[in-house]
Design a protein that fits this description.
The protein has about 425 residues and is mainly alpha-helical. The chain has helices at about 10-20, 30-35, 40-65, 70-80, 80-110, 120-140, 145-175, 190-205, 210, 220-245, 250-255, 260-270, 270-305, 325-340, 345-375, 380-395, 395-415.
Amino acid sequence: MAKLERPFGVWTATAMVVGTMIGAGIFVLPGRLAPLGWTGAVSWIVGGMGVLAIARIIADLTIQRSKEPSILTICGDILGLLPGRVIAWSYWVSLIGSLSVLAMAGAAYLLHLFPSLPDGPLEQAIGGTAIVAALTAINIRGVRNAGNFQVTATLLKLVPLVVVIGIVAWLAVSAPATYGQAPHAPFSTASLTPALAITFFALLGFESAGLVAERVRDPARNVVRGTLLGLVLVLVIYMIVSTGIMMASPADELYASSAPIAYFVTRFLGPWAGDAVALFAGISAIGCINGVILFLGELPLGMVRDGQLPDYMAPTNSNKVAAQPLLLGSLLAIILMLGSATGIGERVLDFLLRLTTASALWFYAAICIAALVAHVQRTLAVVGLGFCAWVLYGTGLEAGGLGILLILVAVPLHFLIGGRTRARGTAPAG
């Protein structure tokens, strides 16, 4: 079998990280953090330090095993077939939940631009279905198309955030007293844990480049640079945007707003800016959706090529894309969206929302454990494990318990699939 195409360089890898991390979340997160005041600002620093530790571990594992398809297969090879499949299953399902939520959020922002149209749950679900279907078609046509779209979407989604940064900088220079007009909650140690759980949700996806390492040229160099560069860029943007908005806005008004960035921009640039922010928020969600859809196919494909899954679970089409799991994941996300519109699936969507962070944490913890076993950055691995446990506690007992339940579902699936299908490093038959 011919080698897979490697169209991604360092800038596409960076765009993949930035595009996946910056989704619709940043457009609502300042409101969620508003009641926490300065504790929310500190949580960005603490969360960033923890995520940077895990990102460095991912980078070093990728360097050590640069011929592996992805960080997931690296974990599977180090920890064993069963743990590898369990973690991959948990991560793949969390992607489906994220996809459904992001699609409906993106549709809601875009519908905001057309006030004459109804914007109820059904309309959002239909709009989200159209977005998922269109991006699925792009990804099925090839990862190069998906990568090019990701770069474009990433550049566009940064526009409203740059506007916010510009307003914050202008206020800091010309009207610094603005930051002291409204009181904000002081730092509280007790509030740091729930604040950290909120900010960590916005940081999910920093491992994106490592998940598609097989598609990246010179992965030992470009995956590492793309991961660290993208993560640092996102952290700086998030800290400036979230903290700047908080400092210049009354906490109660910011918390009450469903679109805090639009609220902030409207205060200083006028109502027309709200529509502009809604447009770019929709673009942001679409860029994030594209990255998630790409991973729905790339994740099982990497496991197939590593022998962790049989060939029939992720066959490639003429464009070298694992269309089968990609289509399945997109279909399940669409079903969840349409179900939520009827009210029947509302509890299911709530389940996935609360579970996304908790389930993803098991993957990050597995990376740290793999690093300990492989003698890679062992001190950072211990720090990363402690950080994962801390954030998991912050998500609440219910989400953590549901995450464990999800992991247990993968155990019988493992025995149904059977053992490793081929020796490591050999290509699939078809």
